[in-house]
Amino acid sequence: MLLPVLLSGLVLGAAAPASAHAVLRATDPADGTVLRTAPREVTLTFTESVGLLTDSFRIYDPDNHRLRTGPAGHASGRSDTARVTLPARLATGTYTVAWRVVSADSHPISGALTFSVRERTAAPAAPLPERTENPVTTALHTIARYLAYLSLALLLGTAAFVAYCRPPTTAHLRTPALAAVVTLLTATAALYLLRAPYEEGTAPATALALSSLTHTATTRPGLLLLARTVLLLLAAVCAVLLRTRRTRLPRRATLAAAASLAVALSLTWSASDHASAGIQVPAAIASDTLHLLAMAAWLGGLAALLWTLRPTAAPAGLPASVTARFSRLASASVAVLAVTGVYQSWRGLGSWQALTDTTYGRTLLAKLAAVIALLLAAACSRTWTKRLARAAAPARARVPEPAAGAPVPEPAVRGAAPVRARVPEPAVRAAAPVRARVPEPAAGPPLPPEPAPGPAPVTQVHLLRRSVLAEAVAAGVVLALTTLLTSTVPGRAAVESARQAPVPATAGIPTASVTTIPFDVGAPGRRGRVQITLDPGRVGGNFVQAVVYGPDGGFASVPELRVTLTLPARHLGPLDTKVTDRGGYWAADAFTLPLPGTWTLKATVRVSDVDQVTVSAPVRVTR
Fold it and tell me: Could you give the angle at the alpha carbon of 198 between the alpha carbons of 192 and 203, nearest 5°?
């Protein structure tokens, strides 16, 4: 019981009001400025506390040689800053700073900026590539996160199904529960090993380095992953000991221990994701924990019900009370999910505009659509559950009545002659002729014909199995979108990042680079081209303008356009130009290109609420 208390202390002790997913608020020196004297250090200020890496800063001189700097640290004990000390003497020219830190919600963020000493110069292309984010590491980390969510839902949902729905037998549920425990342990171990490569953007092969393992153990996500492992191993050991010793604990004690374990496990998620950073952190962590528990009870219990209804389990003999109780459990879980989901959506979005203008908001809308499909499937399951209950009730009520004229046993009475009860009916008639003249009682009115029965119970269970399977498929989609949401910048932070003041553009040679990229969404009338202008198209400050043309060659209005540039030779970027709608065209007054070379210009055009396409083209940036 001490471990959940320590988890709560770790969660609340690290809480700080900020905006979930750190956003760069200010830099010193400012991006794109020209300084009279060389600065002594570079300081970045974020909207929330950030964690530092061994390679948080990479600084290049005007000749694109990497400078030797001191270790990164926080400024004056402020956890929302990152600072690095520069060499004592800096040559005249433009310097490039590439940075990478970890948000308080455990997700790494990166970017770049430039500053010049005494005058602006153009640096030559870098000869060697530097370390960048590894797609294999990111993919493996995402898969491990999804498996962790899936196995947690299956484990806790199965336990809730057994405790509340009380199926007649639970032996068939041991296999999926054991598989969930093994999968959760494996996914947790993978997340711990991949934590350092995921933060630093390196290959998975570096996961087993001793420095990576020890560094992860000093971070909050690493500590929570270790706590999750300890909880699972402790629960597994207790279960094995109770089973081998054939000890049976009181039901209340078992339920209390299981509830404590479920809450503690859920805290290891909510304490390391979006809820752990931002506004109203204690309320957010409580809401996220309840949301996770309700999700597990509903979706994991749904999987347990589906496993119970599988064809090899003789589902026709399943009591209707089991499905009725699960229906009540699912209804309560949906109510909790609705309340906590609305709160978390408001906290993550911050405005109605972010619901459609940010990736987080659009992913949230997709999750809402999947939840609606899940609710529709659940409504079908609830209908068949009620029919099963109605079909079971008449079967219990139709007890066979004794046939007319058949002897009805009477209760034994003291003093009654036992021989009389054993005398055959013909003998009684011969001995008592008077009684024989008594007319036989009529057989009575015939019973009314029974109503035509509905579908056979086996058919009803078959249809219930199908609707539950549809629920399970929709639940898998919901879990996938939930995993995607946890790694997406919240809408509130994305909007705040877009509102950051742009850097004033510097004067340059009055030339421009114009790039035209065709696009085709795939639907009729959903094609065209986007024309992007970089002015002057050289190193330094640039004015960015983008115009979208429709299939007829005329101007086209689109709800969203995003333009980024990446320098593959330096593994730098993507750098977001942050173009905004100016009424007929999109533009950004100031965007700094730090290095020359062949950049990849990428444009994401959204033509409707559901249709968008990303196209790219190379663009040459000179000195």
Answer: 105
Tokens of 544: 């960015």
Residue type, 186: T
Mean pLDDT, residues 240-256 taken together: 76
Cα–Cα distances in Å, from 166 out to 163, 305, 379? 6, 11, 22
Tens of pLDDT, residue by residue over 433-444, are: 444 444 554 554
Alpha helix segments (H runs only) across 311-444: 320-349, 353-357, 359-397, 418-422, 425-431, 433-436
Q: The CATH number of the domain where 40 resides is what? A: 2.60.40.1220
Q: pLDDT value at position 557?
A: 80
- Within-domain flag for 439: no
Helix (H) or strand (E) holding 515: strand 513-520
> If you average pLDDT over each of 103-107, 528-532, 570-574, which comes out highest?
528-532
pTM (global) more than 0.70: no
C-alpha span between 308 and 170 (Å, rounded):
9
CATH number at residue 583: 2.60.40.1930
Place of tokens 């609606």: 372
Residue carrying the six token digits 């970089």: 534
Residue 207: pLDDT over 50: yes
Question: Which band of pLDDT confidence, cut at 50, 70 and 90, is reported for residue 392?
Answer: low
According to the model, what pLDDT value does residue 317 have?
Answer: 59
Q: Residue 421 corresponds to which tokens in the numbers above?
A: 């009860």
Q: How far apart are CA 547 and CA 188, in angstroms?
A: 47
CA-CA-CA-CA dihedral for 420, 426, 428, 429, to nearest 10: 160
On whether residue 271 sits in a domain, the answer given is yes
Pair (32, 145) in one structural domain: no
pLDDT tens digits for 56-66?
A: 888 888 888 88
Average pLDDT over residues 264-283: 80
Clarify whether residues 215 and 69 are in a common domain.
no
Question: Rounded to whole angstroms, what are the CA distances from 6 to 2, 224, 494?
Answer: 6, 10, 33
**Is the pLDDT assigned to residue 125 strictly greater than 50?**
no
Q: Does residue 293 share a domain with residue 273?
A: yes
Is 146 found in the same domain as 48? no
Q: Report if residue 321 sits inside a domain.
A: yes
Phi, then psi, of 82 in degrees rounded to 5: -135, 130
Identify the domain boundary among 495, 518, 543: 495
Lowest mean pLDDT among 228-232, 384-388, 427-431: 427-431
Dist. CA 214–CA 18, nearest whole Å: 28
Domain check: are 285 and 141 in the same one?
yes
Which residue range forms the structural domain that includes residue 572? 502-621
Shared-domain flag, residues 372 and 236:
yes
The DSSP code for 125 is: P
Instruction: Give, in order, the Cα–Cα distances in Å from 146 to each of 67, 205, 230.
Output: 40, 21, 20
In terms of domains, do 576 and 593 share one?
yes
Whether residues 168 and 108 share a domain: the answer is no
d(CA 567, CA 569): 6
What is the per-residue DSSP string for 194-217?
HHHHHHHT--GGGGG-HHHHHHHH
Structure tokens at 226: 């270790």
Residues 72-103 have pLDDT tens digits of: 888 877 888 999 999 888 888 888 888 888 88
